[in-house]
Input
Amino acid sequence: MSWFTKFITSSLGQKLVMSLTGLFLILFLCVHLYGNMQLFKGDQGYAYNVFSHFMTHNPVIEAIAILLYLFILLHAIQGIALWVQNRSARGGQNYAVKVTRTTNTNSFASRNMAYLGLLILVFLGIHMGDFWWKVKFGAPPVVMYDGEEYQDVFALVGASFQIGWIVAIYVLAMVGLFFHLLHGFQSAFQTLGIKHKKYTPVIRFLGWVYSIFVPLLFASMPIYYFFFK
Ligand code: HEM
Output
């Protein structure tokens, strides 16, 4: 076994993978949120479709997207493995017991990270099947801007957000995302050893702000389309 395999399968290595992949996903959500906020521009989808076109045709972003898919899988698989290990190590006791002892955050979020993660994973399966698959492999409607053809992703999103059960799943998943981030954000920094009298309260505050605003803004999109469009 190489030193790398040894390290990555150790308890510290596993936590480090969770922390680094989690921080990468936190950054991805900022970019994804920025792109999706173009839905609210009121320009019949021009800005949204141009942004989507850029994101799906730029080779650097395409390469980062492959890293993103890998990190989502790694984060999910490692999370499930840690949860199973902790459960069996404690004779069926909850993963939370370990989490709460190491981080002192005896909250609903820290006790249910694995279940919240699974909810987000199910959401991602539905979400990527609905949008990503159709954009990459389907035949979405097209529009012409300045004589050039663009996929009308704006129309695709608008049509999905007219369907009640899809809107309900998005809202439920965003509640799950709120709790998952609430614990995950500060826990990621703690795993990296960033524990400081001055910086920890700042990280905790940023974690709260991020965990509230990011899922709230994501949830506002299906809600807006369903009720006001
Ligand atoms: C609620 C508002 C949201 C809208 C309107 C939206 C829209 C989209 C669209 C249109 C795509 C496919 C476009 C493409 O392939 O470039 C996509 C991909 C994706 N979305 Fe979302 N999304 C939303 C929320 C979320 C959330 C909350 C997450 C994560 C928790 C997420 C994760 C992803 C991922 C991982 C992909 C595939 C990445 C890629 O290749 O671009 N999305 N989304």
